[in-house]
Amino acid sequence: MRCWVMVIPLVMLLLLANGYAQKVEEGKAIRLSTKEVPLGKIHPIIEESFVVSPDGKRFAYVAKRGKKELVVVDGEEGKKYDEVWGPIFSPDSKRFAYKARRGNKWLVVVDGEEGKEYDDVWGPIFSPDSKHLAYRARRGDKWLVVVNGEEGKEYDVVWDLIFSPDSKHLAYGARRGDKEFVVVDGEEGKEYDDVWDLIFSPDSKHLAYVARRGDKEFVVVDGEEGKEYDDVWDLIFSPDSKHLAYVARRGDKEFVVVDGEEGKEYDRIGDLIFSPDSKHLAYKAMRGEKRLVVVDGEEGKEYDVVRGPIFSPDSKRLAYVARRGNKLLVVVDGEEGKEYDVVWDLIFSPDSKRLAYVARRGEKEFVVVDGEEGKEYDEVWDPIFSPDSKRLAYVASRGNKLLVVVDGEEGKEYDEVWGLI
Fold it and tell me: Fewer Cβ atoms within 10 Å of its own Cβ: the N or the C terminal residue of the chain?
């Protein structure tokens, strides 16, 4: 069931915040004067439909008038439809799209222009450079992909539409009869029993996905098939696009495959992550009832549970949460920290020299920075370092009041606080 709320106060807040940011950028005095500005008619809106553009300067929402729905963009009303869903801004914030229903037909509206009507529509999605828009459409019992208004070939099913990071390529999975394949820029690949988990490399030069033939699974990279396994999952490219890693299973054992080379076998493996410089790979593994973190093939200490891991921005440090018995602790560069009842929200500073996280002891929570505990509160969340790594801020609650703590200094108490930057 949809909820109806009034949008004007939130819109005003966004516009005021933008004015504030502009003054700061221009080097002007940080003194914000306000006045009420009419933004158009007040509508009852669908709460979950409210969206803000990536640059924070535009807003849109789905509104209801009588039995009809419409999209309002920057205060301007769009055309009325029987139903409207999924309003999205393009990455550059200049374009806007949504899907709408007129009678029993669906269409996509892009920058106010209506597309062709179909029996069903899924999407739409913009390319990273905002120049292209694609979505899946159904005509009768057939599905097709529409790119910039141009229809692709019809299939029994299509799924997993993805643009390459450079926006030059579009790939998706398709099925014809009992066979599946990947379509890249309109060209069909080899047929398999199943295909899924399509990913482009960060440099857009490679496409990888998992395929199944019979009861065996394998990874296909740029059309080349890898070794067959009982199961394959968690495909990831390194940030520099030079390496591909994934988890595979043979029998009851799992292992990581990096550039075709198999690693050590474990009972379970998860959370693969490359370091930002692409030189290291870490993951968590389970042996029997114990868990551990493996970095570049080197095993860490065993614990009852491990969560993470995360690399520092400079790729030289690694941290994760571990549980021993009923206590949790943070392991940084192989060194154990103090034990607590609960630990979460690990973050490295931008310069990689500092680490902060939230911990709880009994009924109280606090932030631990570089191993030093801060003041206790009822609740703590959203720790964030300043860009120069010298300052730390977070939100805390005391009773039914919230406050922001910066470098250990408490701010004024409020009923609600959000949006630390």
Answer: N
- What confidence tier does 300 reach under pLDDT thresholds 50, 70, 90? very high
Q: Is residue 149 within 8 Å of residue 114, measured between CB atoms?
A: no
Measured distance CA(98)–CA(90) in Å, rounded: 11
- Measured in whole angstroms, the distance separating CA 177 from the mean position of its chain's CA atoms is 33
What pLDDT is attached to residue 99? Answer: 97
Average pLDDT over residues 307-330: 97
The C-alpha atoms of residue 172 and residue 216 are separated, in whole angstroms, by 22
Mean pLDDT for 195-222 is 98
C-alpha to C-alpha distance for 363 and 32, rounded to whole angstroms: 39
Q: Retrieve residue 88's tokens.
A: 């999205």
In the chain, pLDDT over 70 holds for what percent of residues?
89
Over residues 150-171, the mean pLDDT reads 98
Entry pTM? 0.83
Report the 3 state secondary structure along the chain.
Answer: CCCEEECHHHHHHHHHHHHHHHHHHCCCCCCCCCCCCCCCCCCEEEHHHCEECCCCCCEEEEEEECCEEEEEECCEECCCECEEEEEEECCCCCCEEEEEEECCEEEEEECCEECCCECEEEEEEECCCCCCEEEEEEECCEEEEEECCEECCCECEEEEEEECCCCCCEEEEEEECCEEEEEECCEECCCECEEEEEEECCCCCCEEEEEEECCEEEEEECCEECCCECEEEEEEECCCCCCEEEEEEECCEEEEEECCEECCCECEEEEEEECCCCCCEEEEEEECCEEEEEECCEECCCECEEEEEEECCCCCCEEEEEEECCEEEEEECCEECCCECEEEEEEECCCCCCEEEEEEECCEEEEEECCEECCCECEEEEEEECCCCCCEEEEEEECCEEEEEECCEECCCECCCCCCC
Q: Give the distance, in angstroms, between the CA of residue 95 and the centroid of all CA atoms in the same chain.
A: 21
3-class secondary structure for 55-87?
Answer: CCCCEEEEEEECCEEEEEECCEECCCECEEEEE
- Cα 56–chain centre separation: 18
Beta strands 372-373; 318-324: pairing state? unpaired
Per-residue confidence (pLDDT) for residue 419, from 0 to 100: 80
Instruction: Say if CB 119 and CB 139 are below 8 A apart.
Output: yes
Residue of 340, 346, 308, 344 lying closest to 327 (CA atoms): 340
pLDDT-based confidence at 181, cuts 50/70/90? very high
Q: What confidence score (pLDDT) does residue 421 get? A: 84
